[in-house]
Every structure is written in structure tokens, then in C-alpha cells.
TrEMBL record:
Gene3D superfamilies: Antioxidant, Horf6, Chain A, domain2, Glutaredoxin
GO cellular component: cytosol; mitochondrion
Listed name of the protein: Mitochondrial peroxiredoxin-like protein Prx1
Source organism per UniProt: Eremomyces bilateralis CBS 781.70
Family: Belongs to the peroxiredoxin family. Prx6 subfamily.
Length: 261
């Protein structure tokens, strides 16, 4: 009988033996496939760590401005990608309104903004209407629809508590993340906030100013630095070379030297 089950049964017996076994194997396969499907609904696939200086993962997604390829969207600009837990949530509404009001500030720095919310497009338009009404603004940057959390998992925009306690939909909650990405598609800054805490839009602008100043001038910036403040000469540049490059150099310690640009 074992030989028959292995497919060596005579032709006359094969149909009577294979039918019940086929049904049994099919049922087992269906159960296994269902278990795998449930697992991937609740468990994110491991991805490489998003380190500073690494290339921002590319993706394709639906947005309020149509379908995009993320790297093509960035083009030769800087980009700020920031995520939100859901549409029609109070903290998110205040945040998107504040960023919308800073449109000219970001554009003057060559920065594109793009938001993400863990809902589909069907509710994004109504939410944008509320944002504009509440903040007296005109939100013009795209918002990604990420109801299945694919981008959220790709960029690790979820916290451990939500992975351990998956909600009733079987998908983890998306937290408030900020990624500053340069024209080479490199991640230059990440900020992660809990869902309960709103971001500081002025800080996002400040760090962009610092990054762009450092790139163009070859300097670093001290605590609470704002545009126009003194900057720090990097340790890799000698004081003599710094004076040739910047002019006046103020030495506080051999390793801590300030200059004005």
C-alpha cells in the first residue's frame, strides 16, 4: 500500500487511492497557507537597518497627487518624509496644518515634503479639507495612502508595543517618524516620536539648515544653532587652514574652535 501511495499503484487502482489522499494533502496545504498568511499580517518582514548615510528605500505608492515612485519624486531635491498614525486624528491635523503653512520655507531650501497616513485614499481628501479649515491654510504636498502599512514597515515606523499587541485589524499602529533625505537619496536625519507627541516643525527646518550649511561650507553646528550663528571648525581642519578658509577663528579649546560664515 505504501508503494501505491507513492504513485506506483496500478492504473486501475490509482484513481480510487489518490482521491482521498489528494483531498487530505490539499486540506493540510490550505491550513498551512492560512497560517502563513495570518503570520505575515501581524509580523513585519525583517529589513536592513535605516542608518544615517544609507540609501532611503524606494517604493511605489498611491498618494493624493497620484501614483509615485519615491526616488523619482525626490529627484534632485531634498525631501522630508513624515508619517502619521491615521486620518482625522487631532495631533496629526495640527501637524499637517503647520507644515502646510511652511511651504515657502521648505521650497526656498529646495525641500519637497511628503506625508504618510495609515489609511487609504478614500478618506485623505476629506481630512485635508479639515486640515485647511482648522489651520487656515492650503495643503499642497502629497500624502501617501498606506492602509496596509507596507511603507510603515519598510521604514520601521512602528513601535515595539504595537508589534507585541497587534490591534483588531491585525496591523501595527504607525508612529510619528521624520526622515530627511538628500538629493543623493541618502538618509541624513531620523526622528521618532510616540503617537501622543506632536513634532516641532521649526526643528525640522533648523536641522535642514544645519545639514545644508555643513555640506556647502564644510563646518558643523553647535547646540541650538540657528542660521547666522557661529559654527564649529571640524577637528579634521587645522586652525591654520581654518583661518585661511574662514578668516577669523575663535579657539576655546584646541578641539573646539568657532568661526563665522
Amino acid at each position: 500500500m505504501a508503494s501505491y501511495a507513492s504513485g506506483f499503484a496500478p492504473r486501475v487502482l490509482r484513481s480510487t487511492i489518490r482521491a482521498p489522499l489528494s483531498h487530505q494533502f490539499q486540506s493540510t496545504f490550505q491550513l498551512q497557507r492560512a497560517a502563513i498568511s495570518r503570520r505575515f499580517l501581524t509580523t513585519p518582514v525583517e529589513q536592513p537597518r535605516l542608518r544615517l548615510g544609507s540609501v532611503a528605500p524606494n517604493f511605489k505608492a498611491q498618494t493624493t497627487h497620484g501614483d509615485i515612485d519615491f526616488h523619482q519624486f525626490i529627484g534632485s531635491s531634498w525631501c522630508v518624509l513624515f508619517s502619521h498614525p491615521a486620518d482625522f486624528t487631532p495631533v496629526c491635523t495640527t501637524e499637517l496644518g503647520a507644515f502646510a503653512k511652511l511651504k515657502d520655507e521648505f521650497e526656498s531650501r529646495g525641500v519637497k515634503m511628503i506625508g504618510l497616513s495609515a489609511n487609504d485614499l478614500s478618506s485623505h481628501a476629506g481630512w485635508i479639507k479639515d486640515i485647511n479649515e482648522v489651520s487656515k491654510t492650503d495643503l499642497q504636498f502629497p500624502i501617501i495612502a498606506d492602509a496596509d502599512r507596507k511603507v510603515a514597515f519598510l521604514y520601521d515606523m512602528v513601535d515595539q508595543q504595537d508589534l507585541d499587541n497587534i490591534d483588531e485589524k491585525g496591523i501595527a499602529f504607525t508612529i510619528r517618524s521624520v526622515f530627511v533625505i538628500d538629493p543623493q537619496k541618502k538618509i541624513r536625519l531620523t526622528m521618532m516620536y510616540p503617537a501622543s507627541t506632536g513634532r516641532n516643525s521649526a526643528e525640522v527646518l533648523r536641522v535642514i539648515d544645519s545639514l545644508q550649511t555643513g555640506d556647502t561650507k564644510g563646518v558643523t553646528t553647535p547646540i541650538d544653532w540657528q542660521t547666522g550663528d557661529d559654527v564649529i571648525v571640524p577637528p579634521t581642519v587645522s586652525t591654520e587652514d581654518a583661518k585661511k578658509k574662514f578668516g577669523k577663528v575663535r579657539e576655546v579649546k584646541p578641539y573646539l574652535r568657532f568661526t563665522t560664515i
